[in-house]
Amino acid sequence: MFDLQTTRGWIETVGVAVGVIGAVVTIYFQLFPAKPPLDTDHKTVAHPGINIPGTVTQTGTVNVIGSGNTVYVINYTVPQEENRWKKREAELRAEIKLITKNTAEDRTALEQELKTVRSKRAYVEKSHEDRVAELKRIAGELEKFRKDVPETKINQALGALAKGDTGVADGIFAEVGAASQPNIETAARAAYERGRIAYDEVRWQDARIHFQRADRLSPDHEDYTFWAAYLAQRLGDYSSAGRRYEAIQAHVRSAKGEDAPETATALNDLAGNYESQGRYQEAEPLYKRAIGIDEHGLPAGHPDLARDYNNLALLYWKQGRYQEAEPLYKRAMGIEEKALRAGHPDIAVVINNLALLYRTQGRYQEAEPLYKRAIRIDEKALPAGHPDLARDYNNLAVLYEKQGRYQEAEPLHKKAHEIYEQALPAGHPTLAIGHNNLAVLYEKQGRYQEAERHYKNALGILSAKLGKQHPNTRIIADNFAIFLGKIDRNSEADILRKDYGL
Fold it and tell me: Which segments within 1-60 are labelled E, that is strand?
């Protein structure tokens, strides 16, 4: 989501969705509720799910799947999970190398998937726990298809699941869905299960196709509609997602009531979709309604209220309504600090957002300790080299730079850039952030040769990946042209402006 103006400047990273404000690329946190397990950048809120049959059991610390005399112990290890994500990361990097042959939508999907895989690897033990839970869930779903599938096939799939392999189960769901005369509900369920498998493997384009088929076959099933909407939103198809979120919201209000927690969740989902499209006036009353429901129905200090307050505060921040945003951020931070263990990385989410608010208002002395606190939290909670640390270092560096504290800003910018270079494939657009910021810093210090090198790197990346007419590319080109004029290379600046249509 991009909002282009003409002010020249640096790039600040504060989260996960990207927006250009002046020449400042802001990456901020949005805490939308959602059923699926999101990246560690997001919070999750429980959503009505599917009951797992009683044939899936856990004995002590041993996970057992199956039924009757045929049971299997899940023997899937953390190293296997690490290898799973290494393989998927290699696949994605190979696909991204062919990015010039892909559409903009394909590029967005691949980059989102790579970011998620990197996050999974950073939290591999938690990812392993989630994977085991998903294997058990799939095993439970297979039990529902026993009347449609030979027992030997079911048992083969269960045996594969015990080793962490979902391929046989996926094949069964595909066969059921492709039967010559399938029961509509059975076919929809099979498509949904294929979507869940693909989503867990971070194959989102495949997952979206399956969820859309399930939703098309059974449009009144809330889970199918939700997942089809969620993947559409995640892949940038906001209009398709919006239609489905609107349908969910109407269905939940009718089935659960106007003041049900599920209604607040649905309102937050729909508001987030409107906000992603810049439909702020439509999003605001939905966020407020969700807050009203949760304030009335939840105990004071419930984590869902922190989500609600943060979402509305961020909407206000985007509109420049800073005085309204500040108390909401403070409420959200107060709740997080009480509800979560000290040093939990989710606390750094709201801290960063509040610090950005202060920085935007020029309240640097108040912003600095917050940015430093976010760094302390994430340095303890996250593995070295995690992209969130690059965000934290970059934010504090930008704050120092605004105050003319260049010597303090430079090592932080370099740290951030080094992390991005390790975490992202060569030529990734995010790498232009580091090059631009270092270029601006060196220019201000009169270190023109170094500044020029980084401007060229930033412009080369964005021109190749986004094209010369993309708003972000034009911002960097304008920065570079102004720099060239400053050092009396006006003819080169004029050529650059002409080339980029400035």
Answer: 12-13, 17-21, 24-28, 57-59
* Full DSSP string of 145-174: TTTTS-HHHHHHHHHHHHTT--HHHHHHHH
Tokens coding 477: 């080109």
Phi-psi region of 259 (alpha: psi -120 to 50; beta: other; left: phi over 0): alpha
Q: Is the pLDDT of residue 386 over 50?
A: yes
Share of the chain above pLDDT 90, in %: 55
Positive or negative CA dihedral for 43, 46, 49, 51? positive
Which candidate, 31, 41, 118, 21, places its Cα nearest to that of 398? 21
Q: Name the phi and psi angles at 12, rounded to 5.
A: -115, 135
Q: State both tokens at 159.
A: 């045996």
- CB 214, CB 195: distance < 8 Å: yes
Structure-token match 């869905």, residue found:
177
- Alpha-carbon span 423 to 430, nearest angstrom: 10
Whether 287 shows a pLDDT value over 80: the answer reads yes
- Sorted by where each begins, the domain ranges of the chain are 47-234
Mean pLDDT of the region 124-132: 90
Q: How confident is the model at residue 55 (pLDDT cuts 50, 70, 90)?
A: very low
Burial of residue 181 (number of CB atoms within 10 Å: 0-12, 13-18, 19+): exposed
Tell me which of 59-73, 158-172, 383-397, 440-454 is least confident: 59-73
Go through the chain and tell me how many residues it has: 502
What is the C-alpha separation between 394 and 372, in angstroms, rounded?
Answer: 11
pLDDT in tens, 81-110: 999 999 999 999 888 777 655 565 677 788
Q: Would you place residue 69 in the very low, low, confident or very high pLDDT band (cuts 50, 70, 90)?
A: low
Residue 435: the pLDDT is 92
β-bridge partners, 4: none
Q: Measured in Å, how far apart are the chain's first and last C-alpha atoms? A: 22
Read off the DSSP letter of residue 182: -
- Give the per-residue pLDDT at 218: 93
Cα distance between residue 207 and residue 191, in whole Å? 9
Rounded distance, CA 252 to CA 275, Å?
Answer: 21
Only one residue has tokens 């079911």, namely 154
Containing H/E element for 83? Answer: helix 78-97
Would you say residue 241 has pLDDT above 60? yes
Sheet holding 70-73, edge to edge: 57-59, 62-67, 70-73
Provide φ and ψ at 10, rounded to 5°: -110, -170
Burial of 87 (0-12, 13-18, 19+ CB in 10 A): exposed
Query: Can you read off the two tokens belonging to residue 72?
Result: 């299997």
Query: Contact at 8 Å (CB) between 283 and 315?
Result: yes
How many of the other CB atoms lie within 10 Å of CB of 220? 9
Phi and psi torsions of 361, nearest 5°:
-90, 0
Strand partners of residue 62: 59
